[in-house]
């Protein structure tokens, strides 16, 4: 009887010790909020205090309580720098995820707190009458960490023979800055609303019931060009911006990755025939 009790106590202590070794250790692990959430890709962040474990990273799942033992996706991070770790994770748009940072050494796994985050739309995704072309980042005008915002390009572009219009007419106060496209378009049409010019075509464009399209500014076109490959389906070439250079010229940008020096953004005569594409904000 006494022998059986000793065996039972010994086994119970051994099992409890094994269970503890799965989720406790000498490291203090904290899961931080995700950043750079672009719909199909996020940056995972965490802190590990107590040294540099042999293995550190994150576990990610669409189900709560992700771990290395329940089928969650393991994302290995590089060694901590000033206790900080980070890693990029590829995710599905419009989904909810659960993530925990971890430290793993000598079969001892230490997990941080669980963070929940939701992804939004992704570059190239059909949305709002066109395709998402750019998602606002910190520092962009209108950026809101609580709400995804960005630019949508139309599925159709306007020909090879579109003129900017208003040649010889000064359109005051058009800007090259991000966010200035809508007002630039309004200002162009206030000076000349000739049918068939770039700004008029964009302002009159309609898709899936959306009518708030405009000719993008110089900087807005640059942002779109950054995501040219991810957007997909766009025809490369020179595109008009809504940014005037002077009374006879306006800015164009060549939409295509790795443009040659002859295809760098430049000022062109407003009567030159180029392409145009309508953009709207969301």
Number of helices: 5
Based on helices, strands and strand pairing, what is the structural class?
A: alpha+beta
Largest sheet: 4 strands, antiparallel
Helix content: 10-25%
Distance between the termini: 75 Å
Strand runs, count? 14
Low-confidence stretches at least 5 residues in length (pLDDT < 50)?
1-22
Gist?
This protein has 282 residues and is α+β, with helices and mostly antiparallel strands. The chain has helices at 2-23, 181-191, 198-204, 218-226, 228-231, and strands at 28-35, 41-49, 55-61, 73-76, 84-90, 96-105, 108-118, 126-127, 130-135, 150-162, 237-246, 249-255, 266-269, 274-281.
Sequence-ordered SSE layout with sheet pairings:
Layout: H1 2-23, E1 28-35, E2 41-49, E3 55-61, E4 73-76, E5 84-90, E6 96-105, E7 108-118, E8 126-127, E9 130-135, E10 150-162, H2 181-191, H3 198-204, H4 218-226, H5 228-231, E11 237-246, E12 249-255, E13 266-269, E14 274-281
Antiparallel strand pairs: 1-2, 2-5, 3-4, 3-6, 6-7, 8-9, 9-10, 10-14, 11-12, 12-13
């Amino acid at each position: 009887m006494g022998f059986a009790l000793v065996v039972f106590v010994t086994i119970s202590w051994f099992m409890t010790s094994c269970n503890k070794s799965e989720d406790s250790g000498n490291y203090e692990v904290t899961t931080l909020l995700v950043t750079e959430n672009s719909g199909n890709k996020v940056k995972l962040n965490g802190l590990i205090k107590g040294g540099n474990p042999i293995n550190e990273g994150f576990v990610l799942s669409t189900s709560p309580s992700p771990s290395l033992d329940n089928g969650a996706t393991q994302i290995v991070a590089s060694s901590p720098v000033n206790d900080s770790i980070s890693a990029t994770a590829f995710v599905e748009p419009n989904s909810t995820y659960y993530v925990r940072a971890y430290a793993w050494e000598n079969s001892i796994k230490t997990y941080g707190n669980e963070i929940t985050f939701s992804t939004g739309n992704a570059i190239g995704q059909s949305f709002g009458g066109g395709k998402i072309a750019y998602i606002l980042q910190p520092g962009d005008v209108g950026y809101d960490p609580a709400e995804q915002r960005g630019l949508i390009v139309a599925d159709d572009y306007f020909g090879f023979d579109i003129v900017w219009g208003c040649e010889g007419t000064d359109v005051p106060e058009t800007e090259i800055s991000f966010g200035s496209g809508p007002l630039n378009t309004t200002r162009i049409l206030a000076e000349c609303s000739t049918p068939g010019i770039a700004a008029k075509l964009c302002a009159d464009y309609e898709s899936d019931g959306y009518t708030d399209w405009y000719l993008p500014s110089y900087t807005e076109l640059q942002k779109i060009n950054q995501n040219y490959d991810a957007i997909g389906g766009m025809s490369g070439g020179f595109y008009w911006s809504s940014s005037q250079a002077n009374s006879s010229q306006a800015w164009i940008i060549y939409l295509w990755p790795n443009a040659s020096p002859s295809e760098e953004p430049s000022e062109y005569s407003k009567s030159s025939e180029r392409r145009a594409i309508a953009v709207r904000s969301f």
